[in-house]
Amino acid sequence: MSAFEEDTAQDDVPGRMIVALFFLVFGSAGLALMPYQTGTSPGDEGWFTQPWLMPLLTLSLLTAVSLIYTVRLWRNRENSNAALAGGALAGELWMWLRSAEFFLWYVAYIVALGVVGYGFSTFVFIAGLGFRIGLRQPKWLLAALAATLGMTLLFRLGLEIWVPPADLYNILPKSVGVFLQRYF
Amino acid sequence: MDAILAGLNQLGQLNVLIALFAGAISGVIIGAIPGLGPAVAIAVLLPATYTMEPLTALTLLLGIYSGAWYGGAIPAILINTPGTPVNVLTTYDGYPMTLAGQARRALSLAYSASFVGGIVSVVVLIAMAQPLADIASNFGSAEFAMAALMAMVLVVVAHRGRVVTAAITLAFGLFLATVGLETAFNTQRFTFGQVWLQGGVPLIPVVLGLFAMSQAFVLLLGEDESGEPPRLTGRFFQGLAEIFRYPKTLFASSGFGVFMGILPGVGEFLAQFFSYTLAQKTSKTPEQFGKGAPEGLIASEAANNAVPAAALVPLLALGIPGEALTAMMLSVFMVHNVIPGPELFATRPEFISGLYLSLLAMNVVILIFLLFATRMIVALSRINTRFIGVVILALTLVGTYTANYNITDPLMALVFGLIGFILKRHNIPIVPIVLGVVLGPIFEARLRQALGTAGGDMAIFVERPYSAGLVAIMAVAVIAIALNNRRRRQRERIAAGRG
What we know:
The complex is a heterodimer.
Chain A: H1 13-37, H2 53-75, H3 77-85, H4 88-116, H5 118-132, H6 138-158, H7 167-170, H8 174-183
Helix pairs in contact in A: 1-2, 4-5, 5-6
Chain B: H1 2-11, H2 14-32, H3 38-49, H4 54-78, H5 88-99, H6 103-136, H7 141-158, H8 163-178, E1 180-182, E2 187-189, H9 203-221, H10 238-242, H11 247-262, H12 267-282, H13 294-305, H14 307-318, H15 324-335, H16 342-347, H17 349-380, H18 385-401, H19 408-425, H20 431-453, H21 460-463, H22 465-498
Helix pairs in contact in B: 1-17, 2-4, 2-17, 3-4, 3-9, 3-15, 3-18, 4-5, 4-6, 4-15, 4-17, 5-6, 5-13, 6-11, 6-13, 6-14, 6-17, 7-8, 7-20, 7-22, 8-20, 9-18, 9-19, 11-12, 11-13, 11-14, 12-13, 15-20
């Protein structure tokens, strides 16, 4: 194994090829957009003061190295073909898509924070996502409750992290609402 | 003497003491839970530490950093599952010892080797940081620009077998650092007219996404890897003094850890690899390695634990972080307008002394905690790793959303979480992204200053002695890896020809 060769000697070439192409396209698109997304300094202080210098250097490096990596992966495509035949690419993409599901769970968690407060939304998030991934025994509800209490104690009481007022607390009696807003 | 007393005064503050105990103990626990790791914990806690005093915040984060490597040895030894990735080699000899009914002996060997490595590392930090800072006081912009560049080059080169992908992710991180309002001429760079991008890509969503969320996704989509903890057998205190029967391994490994810790980007992995290899080569019983050799265990643990304090040397002396965890710590300095580097030693000696003493005290607290709480910590290795994934994701909300109370930060973190998840699945390094984000602005600012002084003449980087020295180190590193590659290719060609 040499320092450079392990980069392409894995059997997960299809996934790596997508990653390499992503960075290649990202770098190339960035370079193409440079005239519109950077500027030039008004005076004549020298090339090294130009705002476009660092984006140019970094995007050029990104594009060049991604290109090298893509070419190496392409040369090593026997692995790629074997993996493709086995449906590895579809499996890989499915795995990426499954991770995107958690994206939605998380956005729902943030939205719920402003509606039902930190403590309750955290409990629902942990218990709900736990249920979704197969943790369905009653003990996991207790574990979710314990984790919620621990996090609430740490962040709300210990570190006194402020969270936005929850809509739910406004419809509760004022003293209860104030208490919950302060500690949960 | 005054500095030591001032440092003791700092350490004696209640909030620092609480941070010391909380960081050290939680670090051990975090390390002992497979799949969690200090990077996740530090990323989650980082935003909360911004409201603390710098010494309190750094003590807490360093406690987690140091404690995790100690704690990571527990599942490595007992259930053959490293608590953190850097405890991999500990499984080689630790687990066979457990199978042989010597679990307690293995644990006490690991604890005491870690302790010696940790203390040696702090002593070297104390001895080296000030002289290095004195040298750095002669640094100008050219030297700082080259020091930042050297850190980047070494980070890439240190990713043995993944140099190309490390270069890609470093370039990606460096580009991210250029996004936003460029302050010299108020030019917007890659903001696409979006107000929320004018402040640039913030570090918190990047680290939370890349380290915490991506790890949560890995755990959520993987199988539960928790195991049944075995019974603790054998004599517990047997190994504490036993390490001194192998002084060569103990101190050579600690030395490797320190050296590798100081070098940017190298860190625990290469330190333990080299230490283990050397220990095996110099052992009287090399055949025992991998079968329960105490020297193997000592080599791995002493080297790992010698890294954290040593990694602070370039951070404190030059203001240049060498890896992701110290890069996160640099942000704590920046938030409080405390600039690490030569001036810090002159203007805040009490802070420096306080940091040294807290690092020393931290190792003692961790060792004592481990000696009495191992049985309790062992139970943590039974926690379902998928449930840990859910909790990590929930923990990140505080860091992402409550930093600015806008939806863009958590969304940005989620995007980086997905990127980190995909990169991790393909063994593509993510640490260079964080280093690029942190080192990019330092490099750009210093490069401009240096070239401005020299009227745009690039020769300034090789005309000044310290700068030329840094350029030489970079050149040697790159040439060495190129030659190494060439030799390997020749060997492989010869081997293929024979086959």
